[in-house]
User: Fold these one by one.
Assistant:
Number 1:
Amino acid sequence: MRRIYTCFPEGRFKALTLSYDDGKITDRRLIDVLNQNGLKGTFHLNSGYFGETKGHRVPYVTREEAADLYRGHEIASHTSTHPTMARMPMEGNLQEILEDRKTLEEISGYPVRGFSYPNGVHGEKLYQLLRSCGIAYGRITKSSKRFDLPNCFYAWKPTCHHKEQLMEHLDRFLDTEYDQRLMLFYVWGHSYEFELDHNWELMEEFAKKAGHRDSIWYATNIEIYDYLKCAENLVYFADLHGVHNPGAKDVWIQADGEIHRIQGGQTYLF
């Protein structure tokens, strides 16, 4: 019987993504490090705090700079003003999400569909609320210490915070050659932590070692979400002699050890 596996783009089985919260001015340095090394990240912003300095140890980025600063990465929501959502009425949470989305979409020029939960608080009612607000996924703060794909996109566990044995996890990720399952290395944190902890060299070392590798797909959170959904929607012949891709995006699969690119809208026979 033919064996078919889903791959990441170009037939890869490894992907790496980063996710950073709050939108502080230290994102400027972090993005410079990522860009130098070919890494991509998702930045969850509180649009209600754009340009704020008073009462904050590290100021927020301005609305005027956001479009250029985050270009090539993903702008995602973190609510407008960072409340603890479990203590809020759903009407308030609804306003926080939608107001953040509307502002961020005016800046980015695309639908904002990503989310991370302020203070890490999440639950089934919030999953339902995100879904009704057009949000595709929600990242939580509990680390898995693994390289798994999410079982639930509304409770998307990262691999680790950058303070949690980052380089050890990277070495394990790079050294693993077991291609029977897809591997996703997902790092999260706050860029201002590098400034407060005086350890920017940690991210610089990580990015240099992790970046510019042909074997890794570097993607934002929403790119990973969209790609996996497209892969799920492939329609196979009953005897597996072919497949139809009803979506617009190309999807890569491995069939009996050979890599195939299934173009959007096309039917492919093996």
Note: Helices lie at 27-37, 63-69, 90-108, 124-132, 166-175, 191-197, 200-210, 221-232.
Number 2:
Amino acid sequence: MSIAYASLLGFVGAQVATPGPANMVMLATGARFGFRATVPFVFGVALSKQFIIWPIGFGMMAVMQSTPILFEILKWLSAAYIFWLAWRVANMRLSVGQATGTAPSFFAGLGVHPLNPKAWGVVAATFTNFASPELSALSNTALIASVLLGWQLLLHPVWAFSGEKIAATVAGTPREKYLMWGLAALTVLSVLYVLLGGYIS
């Protein structure tokens, strides 16, 4: 069975575009520090999914199936980290260009997807649905890695840029805290969806 390239592109694009922990963090970070300051973090986040794709492509799915408790532990530890990020987002207040401290770095971005349970679910679902038995593990993994990275480099900056534009509208208004609470709630809900078994969102 050959890979259905159009379906793969559509599936991955939908997963990268939809709200999830990583996109909510980038939206909030762009709102807090501005798009330009957030760019290194955004690229770090995009590259961080490669730390999931390559191990899964070369057999981690088999390990997870044979020792499911390890995946459960990883899933809940990751969820705890994302919940902590959501708490920080809920308590952020927007002041683009005037925020205290510095924006998260490129290296901080590298830790986002490995600790994002939605990312693990999406990558596993992509391999399950689109990897071809006619291709080697290297070819399947390289193809899926490149498609995911391409969509991330295209769409992740949009979330950070949107955060900056939203902040310009609501910063300093009563709507500000409700926006941040809403972003935090979406982050938590996206993780709960994964924990309850819905990997595709």
Note: The first helix runs from residue 5 to 17.
Number 3:
Amino acid sequence: MEQEKNSILIVDDSSLNIIALTNILQKDYKFYVEKDGAACVATAQKHVPDLILLDILMPGLDGFEVIQALKKNSVTKDIPVIFVTGLDSNQDEERGFMLGAVDYINKPFSPSVVKLRVKNQIQIVNQIRMIHNISITDELTGIGNRRFFYAQLEQEWSHASRHQAYLSFMMIDIDKFKAYNDNYGHMQGDNALRAVAQAIKDCLTRGTDICARWGGEEFAVVLPHTNITGAREVAERVRTHVEALSLPMDNGTLTRVTISVGINALIPPHEGGGYNLNNFVSDADRALYHAKATGRNRACAISDLQEEPTP
């Protein structure tokens, strides 16, 4: 499969400059194009390009004002900006770097210089992205790791608390996984972990739903704007999907695994309301323990327990 091209936003009030830059770079990148500063800010926030080539002298917002606006916005603050400008004084260059520009290309520009400077910045962007992806991804299963997941869960908890919206959390555990490893070996156990991770991921239909490997044979899922009814539906979909998996071994035989699921769903109280995120996770874990203690291969919510949730 062909790798997706990096994206560049070109901002210049001159159509000739835009045409020249796109002709120089069109083979290797995809483009967004704007002719004024306000449109640049809007497009950058909407599409989050990998790099911005920004003219300084434009009607309305000039390039210096644009980069200030970009750096103040949490969505666009990390997008590298190269100024492409006819201004060549040391003071202008110094000002640009002080505001956060990563490089300068002077007009009239050389095609070879444009290519090299853009290539250098794109390589840096891709390296940073690769390092970031490694840091948030579980190496074995390819889904998020616990560190990444908990950061996302904290954000969703805060958002749900602010907007008084439902939030659901599922803790998932592969049943009798130690025995599975002992019977079939750790390589087959790793295959099972990967298959279960993919099954969970396949069952999440919304871009806002997040799954991760919590640790060992445990996985976690957060479902924003989802009440207990919706969470039970997702949990059952995941459980049946995993139960239906046929996991091949090297000798041609097939193995199977099942999972147990603990669910918690509520509208988080406003900050300082007593019940906190740790309670939320702990109650889902208690529900998981109940699911395993009452037969495994089933999903239980904290509300299924006779005792009340932790106050």
Note: Residues 161 and 268 are 5 Å apart (CA to CA).
